[in-house]
Automatic annotation (TrEMBL):
PROSITE patterns: ETF_BETA (PS01065)
Domain Electron transfer flavoprotein alpha/beta-subunit N-terminal, chain residue ranges per copy: 23-211
Domain of life: Bacteria
The gene coding this protein: etfB
UniProt name for this protein: Electron transfer flavoprotein subunit beta
Gene Ontology molecular functions: electron transfer activity
């Protein structure tokens, strides 16, 4: 079974993002970039499937600027066998990314696509669902456990009422939640090996996909500063403030 894992290059989760002075977007100049944490979980899960014998090959794919090669090399160091970069300087939106991934799926013919449930930069949580719709494949989102058996896969996912288990026929699309696994530490020998693994570069034009943005961002602003809390001497004062100032009771 061949597994395809899309990964995204995002601002590292430890970095405090800043809005550009002209409010056109987030300033990423000289900012540390890394793999989207949910995608890292997806690569780890695909690697574990390969190590258990359920999968035979893991292919990582990324869409974006040339520097996304670094993100793909990380995926290769975790355990992916080869990688594909769909290179473009155009700002990619979820539907465009889903179309690009579909084009690569049509080319590679994997039986399973595992990707992060969302990216931490835009929190869109759309690409996996759009991909499943474009492919007309069954999907399971927010997976906390994955078990492959023959031509089907069982996925346990967290819902408001507890846990829900779905059984999907392959091929299928799965998006990962935080509790699925804990990604391994990437060792130096694996980083060196990753440099020798094949990395193919394509363009949206070669795949016949139009990635022109459909949504225009008018302005990006930081959220308002949170007001400082206050101490009250007793319950009566608290109730009075909630009633007269906060207007919540």
């Amino acid at each position: 079974m061949k597994v395809l894992v899309p990964v995204k290059r995002v601002v590292d989760y430890n970095v405090k993002v800043r809005v550009k002075s002209d409010q056109t977007g987030v300033d990423i100049a000289n900012v540390k970039m890394s793999m989207n944490p949910f995608d890292e979980i997806a690569v780890e899960e695909a690697t574990r499937l390969k190590e258990s014998g359920a999968a035979t090959e893991v292919i990582a794919i990324s869409c974006g600027v040339a520097q996304s090669q670094e993100t793909l090399r990380t995926a290769l160091a975790i355990g992916a066998d080869r990688a594909t970069l769909v290179q473009t300087d155009v700002e990619l939106q979820p539907l465009a990314v889903a179309k690009l991934i579909k084009a690569v799926v049509d080319k590679e013919q994997p039986q399973l696509v595992i990707l992060g449930k969302q990216a931490i930069d835009d929190d869109a949580n759309q690409t996996g669902q759009m991909l499943a719709a474009l492919l007309d494949w069954p999907q399971a989102t927010f997976a906390s456990k994955i078990e492959v058996s023959g031509d089907s896969v069982s996925v346990t996912r967290e819902v408001d009422g507890g846990l829900e288990t779905l059984k999907l026929s392959l091929p299928a699309v799965i998006t990962t939640d935080l509790r699925l696994n804990e990604p391994r530490y990437v060792t130096l020998p694996n980083i060196m090996k990753a440099k020798k693994k094949p990395l193919e570069t394509l363009t949206p034009e070669e795949l016949g996909i139009d990635v022109a943005p459909r949504i225009k961002t008018l302005k990006v602003t930081e959220p308002p500063a949170r007001a400082a809390g206050i101490m009250v001497p007793d319950v009566a004062t608290l109730v009075e403030k909630l009633k007269n100032e906060a207007k919540v009771i």
